[in-house]
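Tutorial handout. Part one gives the primary structure; part two gives the three-dimensional structure as tokens.
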Amino acid sequence: SSGINAEYGGVGITSNQRSRVDELLALAEKGESSSVDLLVKDIYGGSYEAMGLPGDLVASSFGKAARSRIAGPAREQVHDADIAKSLLHLISNGIGQIAYLH
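Part two.
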């Protein structure tokens, strides 16, 4: 648990100018990660039925940011809470994947 706090806290504090993990978690509760994460529906226009993937499934954490979709005026629509939530999902999904594989 302390490793998770360190990872989330270290990256989150750096990117969001928050000083404590509990502040980041409270901020993440208010966020909408789909403003920075690339979803299946962003790629296929909806669910990808052939693979059984729902449209709201994350295809790439921070994918919209990486594709420069949130540059310029669109960046104003992305809030620190959105970034905090996406980061929390990224770390949580990674932990879940590792747990599943082991």
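Part three, for discussion. The CA atoms of residues 65 and 71 lie 8 Å apart. Confidence is low (pLDDT under 50) at residues 1-10.
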